[in-house]
Amino acid sequence: MGHWWERNIVEPGKLPLLLALAAFVLTFVVTRVITRLIRAGRGPFGNVKAGGLHIHHVVPGVLLTIGGGFGAVASDRHGAGGAIAAVVFGMGTGLVLDEFALILHLDDVYWTEEGRQSVEVVVLTAALVGLLLAGFSPFGVNDVTQQELQDRGGFLSTIAVNFLFSLVALAKGKARIAIFGAVVPLVALVGALRLARPGSPWARRFYGSRPRARARAALRAYRHDRRWARPRRVVQDWIGGKPDPRPARLPDRH
């Protein structure tokens, strides 16, 4: 284990990336726990206000991200400074992406249906960083044998092919499959071969003059969403908290 850690994490300079990922995930988890306690009126926590203004945690998140980012650029990735900057950057990114939906909508949608987008972005970001961390790159490793170089080259070739499949899946409107498909080869391949979602760039380009293909794509998307919407919502609620119910809409009076 020690040899693997030295060869694949420390020697290629991936320790700051690992620390940033750990700080990112831990900060998101702690932040969600605190916000859920505040929402439930439990614990010693409360919203931060200054002069009647609610200070969202994206504000310190931006400051930490800027400080950690510039610190990482100015530091040696093999030194203690780079490790500290990576932790600060990971913490800041966790705070910022936890309120990604607020930035996207320019509104306080944290506990609404739109607020689920923050959870999705955090999960996808963690998956992407985990993919970068897991890649057995031949660069930055000293004294690589010919066999090890071939193994690592083959691994990188597999990643490149999966990336192409993921791009096709992304063009077909399947963002989650595109992200996780870069890690799991069969997922990317299945996403690239199956029908595109209606309204995706692939569907607009290739289904425009094929009404049967458009109809099949719409039916498949409907069945998929109907089948997986509830399990996905359960997982999102477990991670980020259940959103507030939408207020009932009064009927229009003429």
TrEMBL record:
- Keywords noted in UniProt: Membrane, Transmembrane, Transmembrane helix
Residues that span the membrane, as ranges: 15-34, 54-73, 80-101, 121-141, 153-171, 177-196
* Keyword Nucleotide-binding tagged: no
Protein name, UniProt field: Integral membrane protein
What taxonomic ancestry is recorded? Bacteria, Bacillati, Actinomycetota, Actinomycetes, Kitasatosporales
